[in-house]
Amino acid sequence: xxxxxxxxxxxxxxxxxxxxxxxxxxxxxxxxxxxxxxxxxxxxxxxxxxxxxxxxxxxxxxxxxxxxxxxxxxxxxxxxxxxxxxxxxxxxxxxxxxxxxxxxxxxxxxxxxxxxxxxxxxxxxxxxxxxxxxxxxxxxxxxxxxxxxxxxxxxxxxxxxxxxxxxxxxx
Length: 171
What we know:
The protein is mainly alpha-helical and 171 residues long. The protein has helices at residues 2-35, 56-88, 95-127, 139-170. It is elongated and about 70 Å long. The chain starts with a helix and ends with a helix.
């Protein structure tokens, strides 16, 4: 049963990781296509919460940050993929896991804060709206809590790693 859960988790994390890679590649291809002067019809009929996409600049100013965030989430998924594979192989409480959980938590918290700032700036620039939301039902609170949990988990794994090393020396 435990191995089935590990295999399922590995499958799902791999699926998400490769899906994110494909999305990054497609966004990158779109950006290159626009930069080399590929024909694009404006205004575009894309639903955007921020502004009307009516020029090359406005389209690029939307796609480039999306690519940056998507690439960051792909990297985060890559870290989690490595952690899951390492633990599924039976390697527990090592330096890689301590660093991986800490790094994943920090990235998740940073991305959550960066997305909120990005949202604020885009609304200010393109809609001339100053809007600060304090939404307790927002997924951003969950992301920050999950990031803090990963950092906490890294501290637990560090203590376990130290105890494991100490135990191996006494034998």
